[in-house]
Design a protein that fits this description.
The protein is mainly α and about 60 residues long. It contains 2 helices and no strands.
């Protein structure tokens, strides 16, 4: 029974990371729609931010 909090915590980490990356992607699409000439810069910033969120999520999942 001791691992139930770990499972719930892992689920919350994954949900939080998914929401964060989803918000970044949605905001990037809106920004590209407003300024198509800045697509490259927006995509680069989006990918860096998404990678940082994913890295933090992995670190949180495997930290003990």
């Amino acid at each position: 029974m001791g691992n139930i909090p770990e499972i719930v915590g892992a689920g919350l980490i994954v949900i939080g990371a998914g929401i964060g990356i989803g918000k970044i992607g949605g905001s990037a699409m809106e920004a590209i729609a407003r300024q198509p000439e800045a697509t490259g810069k927006i995509q680069t910033a989006m990918l860096i931010a998404a990678a940082l969120i994913e890295g933090i999520a992995f670190a949180a999942l495997f930290a003990k």
